[in-house]
Structures are given as structure tokens and as C-alpha cells.
Amino acid sequence: MRPEIDCDVLVIGGGIVGLATAYAITRAAPGTRVTVLEKEPGPARHQTGRNSGVVHSGIYYRPGSLKARYAVRGATEMIKFCAEYGIAHAVTGKLIVATERAELPRLHALVQRGRENGIAVRELGAAQIAEYEPQVRGLAAIHVGTTGICDYGEVARRLAEASGADIRYGARVVRVDRRPSRGVAVLTAAGDVVRGRVLVNCAGLYCDEIARLTGDDPGMRIVPFRGEYYELARPELVCGLVYPVPDPAFPFLGVHLTRGIHDEVHVGPNAVPALAREGYDWATVRPRELGGTLGWPGSWAIARRHWRYGAGELRRSLSKKAFTTAVQRLLPAVTEADLRPTAAGVRAQAVLRDGTLVDDFLIQESVHAVHVLNAPSPAATASLPIGREVARRALAALTAADTR
């Protein structure tokens, strides 16, 4: 190895995808030196550590898509990983419930999609819903038995330990220099320089910015959407996981009820534009980041195309009564007093210039670099197979670098 190189693969981002990539590299190619740079003081502080902990079955995703393939495979692998490392988890199953006649064709389409993706699905009539959820009401439902829950924060920590990588926390990247014959050199805010032969960008909410620092045009921008949650004061109202029938025009699953690994029940999320990439409430505003969002043509295209949907989300964000009404469609017994605000999350949604919401995982390659540019839910579920795919590309880039 050349003396000026600190590592073979330099991973930016210590969320679950970045750590799964480091884990996969060191297993596929023992002896490969991997360094992970994470700007926070610990792993999984943003998307990974702020989701509802669901191990998704893969029923929602287009057959043949990366989401479908990786979620189905990843759900099995995630449960196995949790069992191997003693991480709290459970295979609970979930209900997807139609509450209006207009939703019945979409529910049936989900049955077909689930079967195409190799997922066992049980169709339920209105009376059968009570077998699983006595307090839930609907016209029809489907039960997906392979859905589960786990502690993704703990998964990330175990991936970090098991990878054997050099993981540096508090290392925010401010500059990337790439030279075709010498790999990449990264400067952190603390003034440290780290040199690697190949860079892997798993920066989540900032992945487009890292791509541009590298000198690449990702052709998209991250538009942050905040997911607002409540916790149910009467968790006994819900036995497991209950979801509405999603709107196929959006990559969001709608307000749902999730009993977590510690028996708490989360209600949400409500999806609204965030005023910062880490905008976990309305009070957090970062003018530069907000200006970047407003300056991207795709943001305005989304607003024009989906303003009615967005207006409903905003109303539920600003009115607890409106949010409660949405929940009552599934759970009539819930009241405003039952809903207690809890931590929000922010989804790093890739948006193209024409306003297209990127629906699948998006991975791009360039000289000495691999960029993960869209990895929202079910990325945590699918993190192990995603990590292997990114690792494969990074190792191929190492081989290519050796021939230059």
C-alpha cells in the first residue's frame, strides 16, 4: 500500500447503511482497511435511530425493484442477525386495513404484489380483523405474517463492532479532493485529513452534498420530509402493527400504529416538509439548507403536483384534532388525550429536477467513488443486502484502481 493512503475504503456516514457496508467489505475481503467517518458522537443518530423499528416484509414494493428484492431478503437476514447478536426483536406480523370502499382495489393489488414478491398474505373480512386487533375497524384487511420489529440503533452498534473498521465519530466532512491516480483525500471540520483509495458516500441526509464535494453531479437533491409521531397513552388499545392502505402516488405509508420492541405504541408519521435537513420540529430552520430546497426546481414541481396531499399533512401537523381524526379511521376508540408527542424523524427523500420522488434505492458510481443517493425506508430492513451491494461496487472500484 502506498504510504500516503490511510485506508482502502473510506465510508462517509455512520448510519445503518454505512455500517452495513463496512461490515460487508471486511467479510467479503478480509484485510481490507476500512475507515468510517461519522459527524455525530455515535452511530445511528438520524434516520436509523429515529424510525419506528419495523422490519418490513417487502409487500409494498414493485416486483423486481431493489426495494422488493432487498426488503424480502433483508427481513429474513435482519431477524437472523438480531438473534445471533442478542438484539431485541420479534416477528409480530401486521395488518393493512381498508377503511373506505375506494381503498379495496388497492388492498387487493397489495395482495397480488405480495404474492409476486413471495410473501404469504392472509385476506380478512371485516369481522376477522378482530382476531388480531379487537379495537381496529375496517371493511377488509390483509395480514402479513413476516413483518417484525427490532432495535435498529442496537443493530447499528453491533455492525460497527463486528465490522472491525476504524470508526471515527465527530468527524464532519467539509472537503473532498479526488485525483484519478491517487484516490481521495477528505478534510474534516476538526482539520484532520484522511486518505483512501475509494470513497463510499452513505451520508443520508447530506448524500447529495457529499457527491457534489466529490465533484460528481448526482442529478437529484435531498428534500427533507419530517415524520411526526405521537405515543399512545393507552397502549393496550393496539396488539401489534396496524397500517392503512397506502396511496401509490407517494413513497409514504400513511399514519399507522406500531407496537415497538419495548411495548410502547407509536402513532404516525405525519409527513411534512422540514425546514432543515435535521429539522425535527418547526422551530429548527437552517436558511442555507432551506434555500437549497427552495432553489431546486423539483421542490416546486412537487408542490404544484401534490399540494392537496401536502395541505392535508400540514393540517394534521398543526392540529392535534385533525391528526386524531385520521387515527380514528383505524382506531375509533382513540382520543386526543391518548396521543402524547414524541421524537420525530426526517426522511432523506431524493427528488429529481422534474419533481419525481425517487421511489427505489439509488446507487451511482464514478471514479474512486460509490454514492448511495436514495435509501429511505425500508433501508434499515434491507441494510444487510444493501451493504453487500455497495461493498461489491466498492471492491470492484478498488480492483479498477489497481489497474490505473
What does it look like?
The protein is α+β, with helices and mostly antiparallel strands and 404 residues long. It is built from ten helices and 20 strands. Strands 5, 6, 7, 13, 14, 15, 16, 17 and 18 form a nine-stranded mixed β-sheet that branches. Strand 15 and strand 16 form a beta hairpin. Helix 1 crosses helix 10 and helix 2 packs across helix 10. It starts with 6 loop residues before the first strand and ends with a helix. The relative contact order is 0.19.
Please report the number of helical segments.
Answer: 10
Oligomer: single chain
Count of discrete structural domains: 2
CATH superfamily of the largest domain: FAD/NAD(P)-binding domain
Question: Can you tell me the overall shape?
Answer: globular
Give the low-confidence spans: none
CATH topology tier name of the largest domain = FAD/NAD(P)-binding domain
Roughly what percent helix? Answer: 25-40%
The Rg value, from CA coordinates, equals 21 Å
List strands and helices in order, with pairings.
Elements: E1 7-12, H1 16-28, E2 34-38, E3 54-55, H2 66-85, E4 89-91, E5 94-98, H3 104-116, E6 121-125, H4 129-132, E7 140-144, E8 148-150, H5 152-163, E9 166-169, E10 173-179, E11 183-188, E12 193-201, H6 207-214, E13 220-232, E14 241-244, E15 256-259, E16 265-273, H7 287-294, H8 297-318, H9 320-328, E17 339-341, E18 345-352, E19 362-366, E20 369-374, H10 383-403
Parallel strand pairs: 1-2, 1-12, 2-9, 5-14, 12-20
Antiparallel strand pairs: 3-8, 4-8, 5-7, 6-7, 10-11, 11-12, 13-16, 13-17, 13-18, 14-15, 15-16, 19-20
Helix pairs in contact: 1-5, 1-10, 2-10, 8-9
